[in-house]
Write a structure and sequence with these properties.
Elements (H helix, E strand, L loop, with lengths): L3 E3 L1 H7 L8 E5 L3 H10 L3 E6 L4 E5 L6 E6 L2 H6 L9 E2 L4 E2 L4 H6 L2 E2 L5 H7 L3 H11 L3 E2 L1 H10 L9 H14 L1 H13 L3 H7 L7
Parallel strand pairs: 2-5, 8-9
Antiparallel strand pairs: 1-2, 1-6, 3-4, 4-5, 6-7
Helix pairs in contact: 5-7, 6-8, 6-9, 8-9
């Protein structure tokens, strides 16, 4: 069964870090086809998450892994948020259509496609941008910095509160450096007002 390691796991391997999770992509038409391919390859199905188009499975006595499907590798990578997360590896070839490797080398965070459109489509990506930049010592591209300043108030919507807390907890706990960098990004882009809106306190401003 042909499968691709995708997303953050590829990024972490390039950074010589141990990935928290392994996410795999299998090329097929739908979730049912993915389940059939996994069973045919002797994977044990743990559960099927139809809402996320994801199947959690493992080989006998193997590590539990997450599998998603797409009609093409290009279609999957084009929907991702940042170039450093839009890479894939099949065990032999690294697929990097958006220049994620170069951005890692330049210590730059860049979106896949237009920054404003990317962050506007899912404003929580603003907090993800802060987490990735803080944890991996990256700087925002000019387009991301401008988009954050234009879109930050959209994070005041109630549905983002728990997600903001999750992203903050991850970036503050990652390392002492990431904690300081997170506070710096929050101040630079005047995001304290968003935290105050949700009643989120960190302890210092």
């Amino acid at each position: 069964m042909k499968k691709y390691l995708v997303g953050g796991a590829v990024r972490d391997k390039l950074l010589e870090r141990l990935p928290d999770d392994l996410d795999w992509l299998v090329l097929c038409q739908d979730l049912q086809s993915l389940e059939q391919k996994l069973r045919k390859a002797n994977y044990r199905i743990i559960y099927v998450d139809e809402a996320r188009n994801l199947i959690r499975a493992c080989l006998e006595q193997g590590k539990v892994e997450d599998y998603v499907f797409a009609e093409s590798l290009e279609a999957n990578l084009s929907r991702r948020d940042f170039t450093i997360n839009a890479m894939a590896y099949d065990g032999e070839t690294l697929y990097d259509p958006y220049g994620g490797v170069i951005d890692l080398q330049l210590q730059r965070l860049e979106t896949v496609g237009d920054a404003y459109a990317c962050l506007h489509s899912s404003p929580i990506r603003i907090m993800r941008a802060i987490r990735f930049a803080s944890c991996f010592s990256l700087t925002f591209s000019p387009s991301i910095a401008i988009a954050i300043d234009l879109l930050k108030d959209e994070l005041k919507a109630q549905q983002f509160e728990s997600l903001i807390r999750q992203e903050l907890n991850k970036s503050l706990a990652y390392s002492p450096y990431s904690a300081i960098a997170t506070l710096t990004f929050l101040s630079k882009h005047e995001l304290w007002s968003v935290l105050d809106w949700h009643g989120i306190t960190i302890g210092t401003k």
